[in-house]
Design brief:
single chain, alpha/beta, 8-stranded mixed sheet, 45% helix, globular, disordered C terminus, binds 1,4-dihydronicotinamide adenine dinucleotide
Amino acid sequence: MQEIRFVGRVVVVTGAGAGLGRAYALLFASRGASVVVNDLGSNRHGDGSSSKSADTVVQEIRRNGGKAVANYDSVLDGAKIIKTAIDAFGRIDVVVNNAGILRDVSFAKMTDAQWDIIHDVHLKGAMKTTQAAWPYFIKQNYGRVIFTSSNSGVYGNFGQSNYSSAKLGLVGLANTLAIEGERKNIYTNVIVPTAGSRLTEDIIPPDFFEQLKPELIAPVVFWLCHEDCTENGSIIEAALGWAGKCHIIRSSGCVLRQNLSDDLTPENVRENWSKVIDMTSAKRLTSIQEATGELLGILENMKSGAPSKEVDHVMRSTY
Ligand code: NAI
């Protein structure tokens, strides 16, 4: 099997001084990429800074014969991180937004500061770093972006309202960048990892923790960033050497009134609720145009006064 290489490509990995980011940086470098190892060197709550973790990974890469430079800026200073790539290697091809911290607290007790720092690092930091690379991607007609979400964002998790909202915000950001970048060969995807790291060491039981090696997620991120991979706008969950794609799906729903002239009452909603939430014929809508198109179809049916069963049938037959 021919080895997949990354020669001539320049990759920024944020938060690459430890955990998942370190595994990504080592893999990219081992396959020929020039890597900017960004890490603020903060603790898991985002306090403090140190050049040590980024330096250690850069030394490791160089010892193995790879090319890497360190950057110690916060992802909020994303332009400086991208400048490091341009200054050192003359281009930027891939941004893996991975840096992250936690400030877990129940919603009732959460302060503005605990909300803001999580949204700053995860959502705004990823935006700032990616936005600084975007003009280069457009100019060279090529770019790959990874955002790092979490099952906490997809499903929710007690004590993580700040983190889960920022993490699902990244899915929304990816959805739009996938559309804006597509024509310029800029593909954006989201990884949902589960890995043993500093962030999870006191949460995941030790036996499971040991098996959840970051190195088992890195090849998935690597492939998503490769020029041969055409995936765009996807959410990919990965752990343990397993990977799968996530979708948001919607029920086929139920028309709650038959004619435009009919009122909609709370009682209509109550009577039809089981049909609204019946997921038997659920499907994925792939675009805002498709969602709006379905609404226009419902409107047309209402205008023509089609009986609700017929409307339901018309809707289902398009699935
Ligand atoms: P980690 O704590 O081992 O690594 C995160 C790195 O980001 C640290 O080295 C830290 O210094 C750096 N960092 C923190 N704030 C920064 C900033 N403002 N600018 C630059 N660097 C900064 O954590 P891990 O587990 O490797 O997490 C990586 C990403 O994966 C995070 O975004 C995390 O939220 C996400 N994630 C991790 C999961 C897991 O199971 N480990 C699950 C779901 C998501």
